[in-house]
User: Fold these one by one.
Assistant:
Number 1:
Amino acid sequence: AVLGFVQEIGQRYGKFPAFKGISFNMYASCMPWFGSIHSGYDDTCIRLFEEETGIKVPVDPKAPDRFSRRYGFLTYECRPSWVAWRCAKIRELFGKIHNTLATARPDLRVTVTLWCEPMILGLFGPVAASHQVYARSSMYDVYRDAGIDVSLYKDTPGLEIDIER
């Protein structure tokens, strides 16, 4: 659905020189990413993770508490692999989004705009001293946990990261 939407935008507006591309404003609740380390434990994600990494998630796929048990295993037993896989999948999706838009005009850009303040409130709750820089996780780690490793976007012209400061 996202690729179809991007294709339509490119077809409609790509012919206009003033149109330079699209931006995805990434808040915790927005798609197309996980938004936080607390989401993405559905049956489809787990099946793909197991197939693509070879790591077996030792939770009965029919268990009523499978989502929380997956979370426990993936975030405590193999977090680096889990987070890296999630980031690779989201980067793959944004690559497809960029390629889809570029079919309308090769110079069009896809910008992934990351917002600090809305993310902090969305993930950590009301403003508190614990939200201050150095008292909480770095924004780089917050974004990685949510599915965006900014280092994966550095070598693709037309696919860029913009971080609110």
Note: The chain has a mean pLDDT of 91.
Number 2:
Amino acid sequence: SQQLFLADTLPILQTDSIRFPLKDTLVIGDSLVKKGKDKLEAKVERSASDSIIQDLKNKKVYLYGNALVVYGDIKLEADYIEFSFETNQVYARGVPDSMGVIKGTPRFTDKTQTFESKEINYNFDTKKGIINNVVTEDGAGFLHGSHVKKMADNSISIQLGGYTTWSNKEHPHFEFRFAKSKVIPDNKIVTGPAYLVIEGMPTP
């Protein structure tokens, strides 16, 4: 009976050890996560509605379905997140549903700043990140850009972006477009030459 018990439960234990727990707290220790002399200074909390897969060989964790990673003041939400223990780098993106529509796109919050985008790469050590196709609220309006770089001092560099106060941030009726911009939170937005676009048509 003892052999039958082990045979019946072993596959279940193997499956559970890969996919669960779906909500846990990962405390980063000196010997577990390092990059040179650097290490994370706070615990990383993570959860997912579908599964969490831990790849100990490559020192990575993969989260699927309503995934959430919290580190200090930083919160990242997406349908797919992967985190590297070795580099302290996190990557997030949405996933296509049965109809091919991308859902669960990343939402990144750092203190008072919130970014919504298609893809996010962020490093917890350097506090720098690359955010593609991003929309963020700034003051009374919305900023968006095809390529955004978040710096350690919380300033933001934007390439091929725009600014609008229209409530429909995805398809604004009007906006100012620019090739390059730098945003200093709660202070100012500095751009190169900008032009007004109304209903998708640029003005002279």
Note: Confidence is low (pLDDT under 50) at residues 1-37.
Number 3:
Amino acid sequence: TNPRYSPTGHVLFARAGSLYAIAFDEGRTKVSGPERKLLDGVIVEPYGATQYAVSTNGVLAYVAGPPVTRQQELVWVDRAGHAVTLRNDGREYWFPRLSPDGTKVAVTSYTGSNSDVWILDVERGTLQGVTTASGEDFEPVWSPDGTRLAISSERDEEEGPGLAWTIGPDFRLEFLLRTPGGGNWEFPTSWS
């Protein structure tokens, strides 16, 4: 993941926590030699973001550490600092957002390569799928009254990624904005 061209004439990339280099002929735009491992122990985030950079004069900087695990647990922490695990079921949970009334958590969960938005009822411990169609749905944000979610969503590559919100108790999606052809993604971060 995360290939970067180095002025030393190499393309650097990561694989399973290791950083590699392969000679690259810029004029022919082709690799011109075998790959070679440079070092082990570079932090690689779950979806490929690798923590390294190369300067214009070829100096390498990186963050050392093991690859970040893809398995998380949802934890509730009360005002006194006591933590209680809400879910530890082997699923991946990302972008948790607490509902305005504090009774639900909207999260993104990945199943294979597909991401969906789910709502966890904190008291009951039940998980309800908001988006279950193929495509990428993530980063939910609650409306101030707790009746809707704004999410980043992609249903098909032709229409491109967009910003959507849920309507009604069945959480039907309605797109508000799309970037045709897989362009820039829109990410909700707050709702005023």
Note: The first strand starts at residue 4 and ends at 6.
Number 4:
Amino acid sequence: MKRLSKAQAIKQRQEFYWDQKKADRPEQFFTKFLRHTKGEFAGQNFTPLDWQSEMLSEMFGWQRVEDDTRRYRTAYISTAKKQGKSCTLAAIALYLTIADGEIGNETYSVAADVNQANIVFREAQLMTLAHPELSKIMKINKTQKNIACPNTSSFYRVLPGDGFRVEGINGNILFDELHVQRNRLLFDSLRWAGSARRQPWFIAATTAGYDKNSVCYEMYKYAKNVIRDWSYDPSFLPVLHEVDEQADWEDTKEWPKANPSWNGKIKPKDF
């Protein structure tokens, strides 16, 4: 879709327009306030890799002409393992809590079990503590797995990993490793959790699974439909990094397609 300004979009009777300032804002926040917390990059500023930068720009840059809210409400992110998905979700959680411009924002991490969801929370916690300014303004409750920003009256929190205790949630949902969900109860309980919000997010990040009778595969197929024709669901952002179906997966030249952090976080010499 051609990136039009709001005035151009209105003139051409388009539903969506491009706001470069909003597209750039998440990456600017990541780079200025967030730091890597472990490994060889520990202590360094979180400068998004190309695939992360492109994804963030797409997620936050497109706006709706009718009300100036974000175009996208759902994002499905699929990559190979060890690409930095959990770290990226943690950074997005902090951005939504601190810098998204909404007072009283609520963001929740969820996964097949609390331990998995805690991986994202721990990343967010360590990122917060690693920056002197964030550590001063943010309130961390390790027991309740909650990070609050008094300045925006917003918080980020971990949810239990079952569908019986998450009713009544009204906020952004960050769903980690969707492919390991044993059933769809939790997914169905949270799918429209932010419907009462002005511009909620439902973000599912996952590695590939094998079960074609799963909610993850259902979302994957939906994402493929959107890739073929964005008008299938203009509010759904598919971010699929995978080897082509017809390609030889043993061909090392194909691997970067499923490993977007290739030459960044992932070192080809290690394979």
Note: DSSP finds nine helices and ten strands in the chain.
